[in-house]
Amino acid sequence: MNISIVTVGKLKEKYLKQGIEEYLKRLGSYAKVEIIEVPDEKAPEELSEIEMEQVKQKEGERILAKIHQDAHVIALAINGKLKSSEELADTLNKLATYGKSKVTFIIGGSLGLGGEVLKRADEQLSFSKMTFPHQLMRLILVEQIYRAFRINRGEPYHK
Q1: Does residue 159 form part of some domain?
Q2: What does this protein do (predicted)?
Q3: Domain range holding 135?
Q4: 129 is in an annotated binding site
Q5: Is 97 annotated to bind ligand?
Q6: What is the per-residue pLDDT across 87-128, written as a single tens digit (0 to 9) for each?
């Protein structure tokens, strides 16, 4: 399985980079996983609704340009479906079973994802009703992908 994580912005925090690198290394025996960063749109702190939509649209264009045509797309969205680790594992297992070898997860920028990206998504996934920094979501996502492969292989994992 080929998994892409398309994410907005650069990761600066060393501790997050180290955690992500560790899980990517562990994932190497299960799947090919790549993280694709697209630049975030520079914007002032205070934005009108229209300006927020413009930022999401520009970031969305960059995201959409990185998605393979036949990829199954899972957008991380606060209003998406809540799933347990086992349910995520089942989703990945079913995709592999039915020949969807390319899966793309999308993590938006600080303002979230624009409408065009959400339309392109085959499903929307929420990790919580809480808001997390998008940089931290990278680490949480790669850990959950790793956990999903462990679950699907019947290997022990921390519950």
Answers
A1: no
A2: Specifically methylates the pseudouridine at position 1915 (m3Psi1915) in 23S rRNA.
A3: 2-152
A4: yes
A5: no
A6: 999 999 999 999 899 999 999 998 999 999 999 999 999 999
